[in-house]
Amino acid sequence: xxxxxxxxxxxxxxxxxxxxxxxxxxxxxxxxxxxxxxxxxxxxxxxxxxxxxxxxxxxxxxxxxxxxxxxxxxxxxxxxxxxxxxxxxxxxxxxxxxxxxxxxxxxxxxxxxxxxxxxxxxxxxxxxxxxxxxxxxxxxxxxxxxxxxxxxxxxxxxxxxxxxxxxxxxxxxxxxxxxxxxxxxxxxxxxxxxxxxxxxxxxxxxxxxxxxxxxxxxxxxxxxxxxxxxxxxxxxxxxxxxxxxx
Amino acid sequence: xxxxxxxxxxxxxxxxxxxxxxxxxxxxxxxxxxxxxxxxxxxxxxxxxxxxxxxxxxxxxxxxxxxxxxxxxxxxxxxxxxxxxxxxxxxxxxxxxxxxxxxxxxxxxxxxxxxxxxxxxxxxxxxxxxxxxxxxxxxxxxxxxxxxxxxxxxxxxxxxxxxxxxxxxxxxxxxxxxxxxxxxxxxxxxxxxxxxxxxxxxxxxxxxxxxxxxxxxxxxxxxxxxxxxxxxxxxxxxxxxxxxxx
DNA sequence: GCAAAAGTGTTGGGATTACACCCATGG
DNA sequence: CCATGGGTGTAATCCCAACACTTTTGC
Lengths: 246, 246
Description:
The structure is a homodimer of 246-residue chains.
Chain A: E1 6-19, E2 24-34, E3 41-47, E4 49-54, H1 59-71, E5 77-84, H2 93-101, E6 111-118, E7 133-137, H3 148-165, H4 179-190, H5 196-204, E8 209-215, E9 225-229, H6 231-237
Parallel strand pairs in A: 1-6
Antiparallel strand pairs in A: 1-2, 1-4, 2-3, 2-7, 5-6, 8-9
Chain A binds a DNA duplex (27 and 27 nucleotides) through residues 178-180, 195-198, 200-202, 205, 216, 218-225.
């Protein structure tokens, strides 16, 4: 039996979210193709992290592998959210050129299963691996390959739905964080603003958000109390219909 | 270019939910394979409604087609919720036998994209099309083909998540329904019970649940007021972060 | 008249909203 | 001493959970 053949029909794409305390960002890979003769750029845009699936590999494994290959990170929060199988999804002209340039057959139907993942933005070394990576604000338009634009927008929707009832925002924050950082994160994800006092009142009811005996350092203002998320306390106290809506 | 070839690698499966005012049910297809010599049943269990995807067909179209072929119904509520691509998902012995018996190669990897759909149970004529269909209570164990058991349990989870914030329960009810029927539906979906008065108080805040000038007929007790769901009112009055949790 | 489900109100506690000022630090 | 973000309280309203009895119909 053959091993480790990349299946021509199945792929996975990862919408990698990160938070720099300012904006919710998406990790994109630069894609360029230059005309061999003129040197002019034929294709210059961005793609999601993605790849075909090995024949003996589960989809979840493939997504984790793609992420590992790109960032060197393991045990990342990954959530499958949608599969895109439109028969025309690879038929834009620049996509055809690009597929041909890397030796793939654009006639070949590829169905991609999309995941979103949440990582601590600073854990990624942007320079690594020869591939040009960029963190791009999720709400700022950018030229994208294939159907990756719609994939990102569905990923954001899926993240919003999930984070309302599950404490997954902490995957985007350092272990120790301030309440203002947490608030800003939720504001960025939902594109809204919250009242500081009301937000904190809500937080104070969540026993799994535990204050540390530690304060922010080196800031030019009153240093903030640091908090951490206790998964233990969360698991023990969560109700059946737990609502994390902020 | 070839047209309408069933792709050997992609399939869709539909978890069809129905409600008979007693239980939440799933529509299953009987699967039998008898030994040609002895006549003894080699395989006797149930499968989801599913099929391979045509080469020129989107996944959503394939799911709608599968549903149409089985029930004759169109414009059904359909929601993609997960894609199952475990390389071992077709390797149980009875599944191999069955695949071979219908001329499919069990070595062939099939990734299936799963949908759940909500239909008015009485709209389906169980007898049609020569295929044996059964409505089976979603929480009662039954012997299922492939990985269909896990597909159903994820479908139920996805339905629960969706119905908390979207008024989709009405897809499972007749146009005119009573509040007790609505309550029972939510109780069955979530496996809980609600207080009648509190449930009704919540309902009375929902302007899109409109009482009709009509009552139940032919029941051996006080006949109930009939209600309908107004999509118009819902669309006009829904808030951004609308919460339909019951 | 009886069985069966429909329909209805109150109370206490907790959550949500709206809103404005003083505090600690680094530069 | 000033700029910056950290941190806090109250009142009004709304929502939630808990709880039991009367009404209308068919038989």
